[in-house]
Amino acid sequence: MAETTTRKAPVEVVVGILMKEDGDVLLGQRPDGKPYAGYWEFPGGKVEPGESLFEALRRELIEELGVEILDGEPWCCVEHVYPHAHVRLHFFICRQWRGEPQSLEGQAFAWQGHVAVEPLLPATIPLIEWLNRLRWKTDQV
């Protein structure tokens, strides 16, 4: 008899990379009480049942930062297995939004040119080099 394994589907998560005209991007620090508290990440969160990815992204950025995104260009999708969750991360580049980011969940946040905050959430680390190439249209980082 063939052995079957039950594997949970990954949790669908949207991630917004708010990018200014000069290429600076917004990172937030995970608040106390969440897994990986103190780690830096791009803002976003779980997709609720019945939501499109873009609808979830709009909702999450309003809830988390008080900004309404006006555009979101799908950028990449990455799966990552953390000790507490298996996630599928849908990244969007957002260049236009309404409002100024606020700390609505008690998190620190920082605009970054060359990303210098640490520690970064593990799923974010491999994407920084790709993002730098996109931001500055170069093969060198």
Automatic annotation (TrEMBL):
Q: Which cofactor does it need?
A: Mg(2+)
Keyword check for DNA damage = yes
Species this protein is from:
Noviherbaspirillum aridicola
Catalysed reaction equations from the record: 8-oxo-GTP + H2O = 8-oxo-GMP + diphosphate + H(+); 8-oxo-dGTP + H2O = 8-oxo-dGMP + diphosphate + H(+)
- Organism phylogeny: Bacteria, Pseudomonadati, Pseudomonadota, Betaproteobacteria, Burkholderiales
Fetch the InterPro entries from UniProt: MutT-like, Nudix_hydrolase, NUDIX_hydrolase-like_dom_sf, NUDIX_hydrolase_CS, NUDIX_hydrolase_dom
EC class (word):
hydrolase
Q: Name one Pfam family in it.
A: NUDIX
Q: Which UniProt keywords apply?
A: DNA damage, DNA repair, DNA replication, Hydrolase, Magnesium, Metal-binding, Mutator protein
Q: Where is the Nudix hydrolase domain?
A: 9-134
Q: Which family is this protein grouped under? A: Belongs to the Nudix hydrolase family.
| Protein name, per record | 8-oxo-dGTP diphosphatase
Q: What is its EC number?
A: 3.6.1.55
Q: Which GO terms describe its molecular function?
A: hydrolase activity
